[in-house]
Amino acid sequence: MPDLARLREQEFRAATEVLRIEVAAICHHPDGGLAHVTLEELGSILDDHADGVELVLVVDEDGITGHPDHRRATEAAVAWARDRGVPVLGVDGARGGCGQTQPRVRCWFHGPSPRLDRYRVAC
Known about the structure:
Largest sheet: 4 strands, mixed
Structural class: alpha/beta
Strand content: 15-25%
Number of strands: 4
C-alpha cells in the first residue's frame, strides 16, 4: 500500500504544475491536527510563503469532503486574505456519497473580484 502522505504530496505538486501556481508549500501537519492550530499560527505560515500574492485559491468552507483540516485551512486562508485585502477565489463541488465530489463546480469570491489572468496565486 502506498504511503498516503507521499501520494497526496505528489498529487498536490502535479496540481500546482497544471494550474501554474508559482508558490505552494506543504507544511506536514498531522492528519486531523489543524483544528488545534490557531488562525494566527496558520496566518504566519502564509506570511512566510505568500509574499506578493494577489489572489488566494481555496476549497469551499466545508472542505469539499467535510474534513476538519480542509475546513480549517480554508478558514485560515480566508481570514489571512481578508486581513490583508487580498481577494479569495473559492471553488467547491456538490458532495456525493462518501464525500465524493460531483462534476458540478461553483466558484465564489471574497474581496474585490479578481481578473484571473493577471494574479500570482497562493493555494
